[in-house]
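Chapter review: from sequence to fold.
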Amino acid sequence: MTEKPIYVLPENVQRILGQDAQRNNILAARIVADTVKTTLGPKGMDKMLVDSNGDIVVTNDGVTILKEMEIEHPAAKMMVEIAKTQENEVGDGTTTAVMIAGKLLENAEKLLDKKIHPTVITKGYQLASEKSLEILNALATRITTDDDYTLRQIAITSMTGKGVENVKEKFANFIVGAVKQIEDFGNIDLGNIKLEKIKGHSIRDTEIISGVVLDVEKVNIDMPKSIEDAKIALIDFPVELKNPEIETKINISSPEQLQSFIDSEERMLKSMIDKIKKTGANVVFCQKGIDDVAQYYLTKAKVYACRRVNKSDLEKLARATGGKIISNIDELSNEELGSAKSVEEFKQGENVMTYVTGCINPKAITIIIRGGSEHVMDETERAIMDGLGDVSSVLKDGRVVAGGGAIEIELAKKLRIFSQSLSGREQLAVEEFAAALEHIPITLAENAGLDPIDILTELKAKHDEGMEHFGLNLFSGKVDDTFEAGIIEPLKVKTQAISSASEVANMILRIDDVISSGKRNNNEKMMRELE
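The token string follows.
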């Protein structure tokens, strides 16, 4: 009898095995890293991303680029994940994390060509990662929360190259002041800082407001333009009559009955407004709608009211004013009201905003971003968010390192010394890990139009002489003591980037079989057969 072939997987399932799977994954990861490579540093270039609807995003922010790209390859998606993790954990350093991961995989390919097993490479990378974190903690400089100069320099470093060069000192003052104001015994919730964009003027006119600014206007033009000593009711129910939940028919046989029905609706709405007035509220922020009749009674009572307020904004108002969000009109009382010194409507061009200032909670802050176009404001917002993330990270951790590639060169130098203590093939992996870290200053030089070989040689010479803070100062185009020059980064940015990059590189290297499932197609085929 002849042996029959055994089919374990369906015909439409694709499978890539062994070396092909590894090389395929490494190539995909390298392509992702190369995509963001040219955006690194103060001289990095921008990317224009155009979606299927023709909407445009112009940015050099690594995580924004990767989020906007439609990436299909599973290994490439893993690279996007480390960028997102870096963004969530620190708020900056996403490009660095992706580039290190891409270079680790590229260097691993050289070791694979030498017939070194992936398990040996991953073990070497793991040893190098752990040693790197140990070295970083030893090299880090501790600063105090009162060191405003260093905090401002950290904010400036994070924003450099993101289109806010001319106003980075002003923004740095905003950022340091805002983060220090919301700090609560070491706890920092960046959700207390609201970023609001208003089109018009230039980014120089960006301002910081102590309070909450809402992108809503009062519901009636005859309402007061401003309210002093505001008593604020925060409600998430509609100030209008509910429609019946089941189909209802009302028979009216005379004009008197119709008028009586209309009058009863008005009485119900007036009763709701009277309950609001009774609490002493002179400002109402409503998450839902406000009926026209209710608007009339609120206007008559000289109450400032806004409708369709976002839930997130309502929550910010609750934190800032000390008020409680009420879901039932019968539960509203004077104790649930928030308070603020002033609630005022501002109109600038086509934009109408409501400013709530003098809140009882001073940790409520709004940064008003201005700009000539949506793209400029979006990129400014990303720059400010990077600065906020870096400064808050330093205030929590209290440790910083020299920027401009200085810390990477010093790390690489110490890792090569560490590799000499290893006897196995892991030594080669640790050396390639060190080479991957040197890719950061090399790319900074390339993006600035400098000769990367000359720069790397000079940097290594300085570090061999014990000058551990020497890095690439791209403002002067020379190798310099970057710590003295004010090019400073949070320790957390580097530790998170190296940890994430080594973890994802090790995970990708350990994959030797890629199976793309075809379950959906099989199910569709079965359904057709059943029909």
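Two observations follow directly from the output. The first helix runs from residue 18 to 37. Residues 214-361 form a domain with the GroEL fold (CATH 3.50.7.10).
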